């Protein structure tokens, strides 16, 4: 019973003599550094995108805080001018709901 040495070498790559590796093996060995670089680049991109999203959310929260302060000032002015307090309460409720909706939408996107 004859054994084909080529089949044995492909079935057991560790038995292949140096210099007789397949083209696929050579390509994988040559491409490995570029794969590592690509993975590192993807990691950097993910970190940068995360940082941008966090910065955006922080800015949105800061803007929301400023708007809440403005609304508080409006409430005081409305109370001093003696406008109906129900109108002021509805106004504040609508503004807060709109602000919260914008914050949630920005955090989701």
- Structural category: mainly alpha
Percentage of residues in strands = under 5%
Portion in helices: over 70%
Query: How many domains comprise the coordinates?
Result: 1
The helix/strand series, from N terminus to C terminus, equals: HHH
Unreliable segments of 5+ consecutive residues = none
Termini distance?
67 Å
Biggest sheet, open or closed, and with what strands and sense? none
Mean pLDDT, all residues: 69
Rg over CA atoms:
33 Å
Shape: rod-shaped
Number of DSSP E strands: 0
Total helical elements: 3
What does this 3D model show about the protein?
The chain crosses the membrane at residues 35-56, 62-81, 88-108. Keywords: Membrane, Transmembrane, Transmembrane helix. The protein is an all-alpha fold. It has one domain (19-108). The protein has helices at 5-11, 23-81, 85-108. Helix 2 (23-81) runs antiparallel to helix 3 (85-108). The longest helix is centred in the middle third of the chain and has 59 residues, at 23-81.
Structure characteristics:
single chain; 109 residues; mainly alpha; 3 helices; rod-shaped
What is this structure, in a nutshell?
This protein is 83% helix and 0% strand. By secondary structure, it is mostly helical. The chain crosses the membrane at residues 35-56, 62-81, 88-108.
Write the layout of secondary structure elements.
Layout: H1 5-11, H2 23-81, H3 85-108
């Amino acid at each position: 019973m004859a054994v084909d040495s080529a089949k044995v070498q492909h079935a057991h790559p560790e038995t292949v003599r140096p210099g007789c590796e397949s083209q696929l093996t050579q390509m994988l060995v040559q491409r490995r550094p570029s794969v590592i670089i690509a993975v590192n680049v993807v990691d950097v991109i993910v970190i940068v995108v995360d940082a941008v999203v966090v910065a955006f959310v922080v800015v949105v929260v800061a803007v929301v805080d400023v708007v809440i302060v403005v609304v508080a000032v409006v409430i005081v002015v409305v109370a001093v001018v003696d406008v109906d307090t129900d109108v002021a309460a509805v106004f504040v409720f609508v503004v807060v709901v709109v602000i919260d909706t914008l914050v949630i939408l920005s955090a989701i996107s």
